[in-house]
Amino acid sequence: MAEHILSVPDLGTTDVTFSLWLVEVGETVQAHDRVAEFLIPGAVVDLDAGFEGRLTRRLTVPGEKVIAGQIVGAIGDGETP
User: Fold this and answer.
1) Edge-first strand listing for the sheet containing 3-7
2) C-alpha angle 69/35/40, rounded to 5°?
3) Which of 81, 21, 28 is nearest to 53 (CA)?
4) At 57, which helix (H) or strand (E)?
5) Which end of the chain has fewer CB atoms within 10 angstroms, the N or the C?
6) Domain containing 20 — which CATH number?
7) Domain containing 59: what range?
8) How confident is the model at residue 4 (pLDDT cuts 50, 70, 90)?
9) Which of 35, 7, 8 is nearest to 21 (CA)?
10) What's the pLDDT tens digit per position in 33-72?
11) In this structure, are residues 57 and 5 in contact, taking their beta carbons and an 8 Å threshold?
């Protein structure tokens, strides 16, 4: 099974907090589905799945400070290894 990483996008600030997971591990997602949220000063920013598959890993928790490029989770393509 191939995995696609979910990482923090460059949001133009270093003050980024992981806010919320919108899907549970094992849930199926489409590429356009929102899977998580980040907080930056004055805004909430969505993270889209970017890939179709199942959420296989969540590596951050709400309230955690994160940086651009940090891996926060993974989506598996659904194929068996």
Assistant:
1) 3-7, 71-76, 53-58, 28-29
2) 55
3) 28
4) strand 53-58
5) C
6) 2.40.50.100
7) 3-76
8) very high
9) 35
10) 999 999 999 999 999 999 999 999 999 999 999 999 999 9
11) no
